[in-house]
Each structure stands twice: as structure tokens, then as C-alpha cells.
Structure to design on (108 residues):
């Protein structure tokens, strides 16, 4: 009985979000095609609003290129942050121009 109850809860969940209707419409549309598409899964994905396999591959390639670009920019950013920290440290170790002027005034 527990297994049947789980199935019913799941079916209601799918029905409440419109999943069953969307799948039924996609399958009916596929059934009504005079010339069946070469890829039933791609047809259904397209009917459900997903990308085609070609679009998916292009998106994966774009993502890969963007990930590479992000890694390059992150490395440059980290290098600039390190350079900035070195400059901050070296600047704090050097006497300021005010300190140098004060020292000159005292020597006069």
C-alpha cells in the first residue's frame, strides 16, 4: 500500500505543476506528426521549450570559453591585488614627503 500511496503523491505533484499536461501535449504532438522526426527526444525537448542538441552543444562550448576567460581574468586580478599589496607595503615603509619636509625644517 505504501508504494501505491507514494505513486499517487508523486502523480499529484506532477499534475499540480502542469508537468503531466506538458508531457501529454508533447507526446500527442509527436504522435500527430505525419513524418516522425529522427530524434523523438529532441522533438519533445523542443516542445517543452528546451534547447535543441545543437543549441545545447553551442551553449556548452560558450560556457567553456567563458570559464576560460573568467579564469584568465581572475588570475590577472589576483596578480594586481598582490602588486597593490606590495606597493602599499613599500609605500608605508618609505618616509612621506611631509616627514621629509619636517626633517629638512628641523635641520635649518
Amino acid at each position: 500500500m505504501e508504494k501505491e500511496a507514494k505513486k499517487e503523491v508523486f502523480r499529484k505533484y506532477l499534475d499540480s505543476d502542469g508537468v503531466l499536461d506538458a508531457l501529454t501535449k508533447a507526446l500527442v504532438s509527436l504522435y500527430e506528426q505525419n513524418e516522425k522526426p529522427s530524434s523523438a527526444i529532441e522533438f519533445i525537448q523542443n516542445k517543452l521549450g528546451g534547447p535543441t542538441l545543437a543549441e545545447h552543444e553551442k551553449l556548452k562550448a560558450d560556457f567553456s570559453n567563458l570559464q576560460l576567460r573568467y579564469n584568465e581574468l581572475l588570475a590577472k586580478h589576483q596578480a594586481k591585488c598582490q602588486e597593490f599589496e606590495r606597493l602599499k607595503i613599500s609605500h608605508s615603509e618609505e618616509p612621506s614627503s611631509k616627514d621629509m619636509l619636517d626633517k629638512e625644517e628641523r635641520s635649518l
In short: The mean pLDDT is 88. The chain is about 80% helix and 0% strand. The longest helix spans residues 53-93.
